[in-house]
Every structure is written in C-alpha cells, then in structure tokens.
Amino acid sequence: MKSPIIIIAGLFLILYYAISQLPNNDLSDQPVVFNKENPPEIVMFGSQSCRYCATARSFFKKHNLPYIEHDIDQSIKHRDMFYRLGGRGTPLIIVNKSIIHGFDEKQIREALKQSEAP
User: Which SS3 state, helix, strand or coil, does residue 88 take?
Assistant: First the structure.
C-alpha cells in the first residue's frame, strides 16, 4: 500500500504540470492602432477546443480587430487550406499576407504595423 503523502505529492505534480501547459492569457493593454477606413485583413484557422485560439479571439475582441475565423474541425475545405498554408497546429493566423503559426501577440502586432506601412 502506497503512502498517502506520495499519492498527494504525485497529484500536486500532475496539477502543476497541467497548469503550466495552459496558455498565458496576459494580453497587453497597449492599444492596437489601425486605419478604420482600410482595416487589416485578419483570418484565423482554428478550432473551438484550442486554448490558444481562445486567447487569439480574446486579443482580437479586446482590441476591436475585425477578423474572419475558419473552424478546421467543421470544414474539410478550410482544413485543406490550413494544411496548404503550412498549418501544423492551431491557430494559424494571417494578417494581410503575413502567416503566423500559433498565437504570438508580438508577431501579430508586428504584422499589423507592416500592414500600415505605405
């Protein structure tokens, strides 16, 4: 029979590992500025079960960024497009012509800046 202390310690280790794998939802409060007359084209290929996709949605909503989302679990056509674009994991985000694999706020902001360049 195993000691309860060993079992409890094992459960804490498992819980710690599970929590450390969650995405960091600390989104920057730095405003995103874009030309409302010529907004960036943002397309996200994701799924409803993806935590990083949820973080991306929160970022877009927080900064009032218009975007189109394609759920690769619901559409074979969009899943095929996702793989043709080099998709390995969700989300795959396209800001104008910049492809971003995964949610990376810094890369998204950089792509938005480049889209504003004349």
Answer: coil
- Residue 85's CATH number: 3.40.30.10
Residue 85 lies in a domain: yes
15-68 pLDDT, tens digit per residue, is 776 666 555 567 888 888 777 777 889 999 999 999 999 999 999 999 999 999
Map tokens 């920057």 to a residue.
28
Question: What is the DSSP pairing of strand 42-46 with strand 92-95?
Answer: antiparallel
Domain boundaries, position 36: 27-116
Q: The whole model's pTM is what?
A: 0.75
Helix boundaries (H) for 63-104: 76-84
Taking residue 101's Cβ as centre, other Cβ atoms within 10 Å add up to 15
Query: CA dihedral defined by 103, 109, 114, 118, rounded to 10 degrees?
Result: 140
**Cα 44 vs. chain centroid, distance in angstroms?**
8
Structure tokens at 80: 């095929």
When divided into structural domains, the chain yields a total of 1
Is residue 33, in this structure, part of any structural domain at all? yes
DSSP state of 36: T
